[in-house]
Amino acid sequence: MRQALAQLANEARSQAAQARHAGQLLGLRWNGRSPEFVRWQVGRGAPGWRVEPSRSAPWPTGLQPDWPVSSEPQVMFTPSGAGPPGVIDLALGRGPPALAMASGQHPAYRDPAMKRQRGFTLLEVMVALGIAALMAVMVSQLLRQRIATHQAVAQHRLGSLCARELETRFGVEQYWPQIKAVSGELRQGHATCHWQLTLGNTGVNRLRRGELTLFADPGQRQPLGQFSLFLVRP
């Protein structure tokens, strides 16, 4: 008896999985001698329940359920799960049941998932687009800030290198211009520094103070920084 019940449970799980994955409508009913699995089938002739072949052992004679003998299943396996049967109307050609039968679906079964399958409303689409636009603006602002910070750091590093290089060259070459404002350019790696040097007196003999202004372009639109240095007269 236990073996028969275990076999029935295993086959019920198999039928439920088949209904869920294959989108079929299956059922379990009592024929007066043993439980049998049936399938709702539409084909030649009138639509109805067709008995599924079973490999289970013979059902024990003394084991009977509380179900009545019926041609309709007492348990139905649908794509959305298992449940009790609904009211069945097999009158062909009258109203919605006939349309359901013509499509291969039992009139007693209405898949709840079909009610949930609907499109998005205009309000939902507008809210989703608004959120997406806000996220895009935030991301673009963050990227611009990152790029601007990276460029500022790179320009400051280039300006410091150029100022240090010019100060070293001026000291080695004993640079002492005769005019108070001079300019030029310095190649530093793959970049070029354009510089302007404005000289002034310090009050100390043979010592002048210079204000060095650096740019990354000849048009002086991209400043690299301003530095102070001192020139010693040879």
Our measurement of the CA-to-CA distance between the termini, rounded to an integer number of angstroms, reads 117 Å
SSE class: alpha+beta
Shape: rod-shaped
What's the helical proportion of residues?
25-40%
What is the count of β-strands? Answer: 9
Low-pLDDT runs = 87-111
Order of helices and strands: HEEEEEHHHEEEE
Q: Figure out the total of helices.
A: 4
| Percent of residues in beta strands | 25-35%
Q: Strand order of the main beta sheet, please?
A: 3-2-1-4-5
Estimate the mean pLDDT confidence.
79
> Radius of gyration, rounded?
45 Å
The largest sheet is:
5 strands, antiparallel
Please explain how this structure is put together.
The chain is an alpha+beta fold and 234 residues long. It has four helices and nine strands. The protein has helices at 2-22, 96-102, 112-116, 122-173; strands at residues 26-30, 35-41, 48-51, 75-78, 81-83, 181-188, 191-201, 207-215, 223-232. The strands form two sheets. Strands 3-2-1-4-5 form a five-stranded antiparallel sheet, covered by helices on one side. Strands 6-7-8-9 form a four-stranded antiparallel sheet, covered by helices on one side.
Which descriptors apply to this entry?
234 residues; 4 helices; 4-stranded antiparallel β-sheet; 5-stranded antiparallel β-sheet; 9 strands
Q: What's the gist of this structure?
A:
By secondary structure, this protein is of the alpha+beta class. It is built from four helices and nine strands.
